[in-house]
Structures are given as structure tokens and as C-alpha cells.
Amino acid sequence: MSQSNPLPLIARAPVIPVVVIERLEDAVPLARALVEGGLPLIEVTLRTPVALRAMSVIAAEVEGAIVGAGTVTDRSQIEAVVEAGATYIVTPGTTPALAQALAEAPVPVLPGCATASEAMALDALGFKVLKFFPAEPSGGAPFLKGLAGPLPALRFCPTGGIGPSNAPDYLALPNVVAVGGSWVVPGDAIKAGNFDKVRELSAAAAKLPRAAKFD
Ligand SMILES: O=C(O)C(=O)C[C@H](O)[C@H](O)COP(=O)(O)O
């Protein structure tokens, strides 16, 4: 079992945009807007038929973009996303079989969890940086604050229900390394080709301070 450490990647930005790409032609301008806004870590969700191709074109054409794959739920997807250019993998939750496969993935992984027991099971497999999903309905920032005492080795990237108003509460916790969210990539703005809006929202998100230390 050999896992790559995701922290050097996550150190690059306090917010990981969670992107749903419906039209392939949106991928490059969207990714450019995110990178220009200061959010180079782009999680492309495997929720649409063009997701893999979107990862490939972003990886090939957008300088500075660090493409990841989101919504990975099955071991069979790991090879496909890495081949498409994903340099990290994010999962919404983690079955035992998926966890075993992720432990051998050739790229850094943020496996999803929503409870102390799930976090402990992942910790036992060697995963130290976890996605906390869905963050708000699962207990939000107070939950992660509560885990810091009993599980001090773990770091989290909460996602789900996070926006500009509550992101600072999460990022103020030393065990939160970044937050994920779709608020910087609103579906209506993408549909309208309004990538300036994405750039503007990203620039604000990129400035959010975080308490976590990376050295
Ligand atoms: O598709 C996945 O694998 C996910 O991880 C779900 C996303 O993380 C959330 O949909 C983002 O949450 P919002 O910022 O509340 O929109």
C-alpha cells in the first residue's frame, strides 16, 4: 500500500471548486477563469457524460490547472480518471472495497467520510486527509472541531452546503485544510457563458484565510 500525500496539492488554494460540466466546450474557459481567479485545484465531478473528456482538455490546454476527479464511487473509475489526466481523486463516501483500491491509487486521494467511525476506518488504512461530506447536514464546523480532540492526526476538506458565509468558520479550524464547493461555479453563469462571474467569485474565495499549517 502506498499513498501519495495530498497536502502539497491542497496547500495551493483554500477552496476546491466542485465543477459539474454539462457541455464540453465550457471546460476550458471555465478552468481558465478558475485558475485566473486563483483557484487552480479543479474537481471535475463524474456526474456528466463529458466529465472524462472535460478533464482531458483541461489538463491539456489550461496552464496552471490542477485537475482532480470527483464523485469517484467505484474502483473501476480510478484508472479511467487518471488516464484522463486527473492528478487527484475525491470520493463522496468510501466503501471498504473502494478504500482498498484508493490505497493503491497512483495519485493523491481525498476519501469521503461523514462520521467518526468512517474517519477512523480511513485513518487505520493510512488516509490522513479526508473529505467530510455532506458537511453541513453532517454536523458542519462544530463536528470537525469536535473530532480534533480524539482524532488529532486527521485533516479534512469539508464539502456540501458551504458558501461564502460559512466557509470562514470551517477554514478557521486548524484541522480543515481547504473547503470544497460549487458556489464559485454557479450553473446559471456557466450556462450563460459568464466566466467573468466565475473569475470574480474565485478571486474572492482564493483570498479566504485559513488556519491550517502545511509545513
Ligand atoms: O459529486 C460529488 O462527489 C460531490 O462530492 C458532491 C459535491 O461535493 C457537492 O455537490 C458540492 O456541494 P455544494 O457546494 O453544496 O454544491
TrEMBL record:
The UniProt record lists the keyword Amino-acid biosynthesis: no
Q: Which keywords are on file for this protein?
A: Carbohydrate metabolism, Lyase, Schiff base
Q: Name one GO molecular function term.
A: 2-dehydro-3-deoxy-phosphogluconate aldolase activity
**InterPro entries per the UniProt record, alphabetical:** Aldlse_KDPG_KHG, Aldolase_TIM, KDPG/KHG_AS_1, KDPG/KHG_AS_2
Alphabetical list of SUPFAM superfamilies matching this protein: Aldolase (SSF51569)
The UniProt catalytic activity note for this protein reads:
2-dehydro-3-deoxy-6-phospho-D-gluconate = D-glyceraldehyde 3-phosphate + pyruvate
According to the UniProt record, what class of enzyme is this? lyase
Tell me the route in metabolism or biology where this protein functions.
Answer: Carbohydrate acid metabolism; 2-dehydro-3-deoxy-D-gluconate degradation; D-glyceraldehyde 3-phosphate and pyruvate from 2-dehydro-3-deoxy-D-gluconate: step 2/2
What Enzyme Commission number does this protein have?
4.1.2.14
- Under which name does UniProt file this protein? 2-dehydro-3-deoxy-phosphogluconate aldolase
Protein species of origin:
Azorhizobium caulinodans (strain ATCC 43989 / DSM 5975 / JCM 20966 / LMG 6465 / NBRC 14845 / NCIMB 13405 / ORS 571)
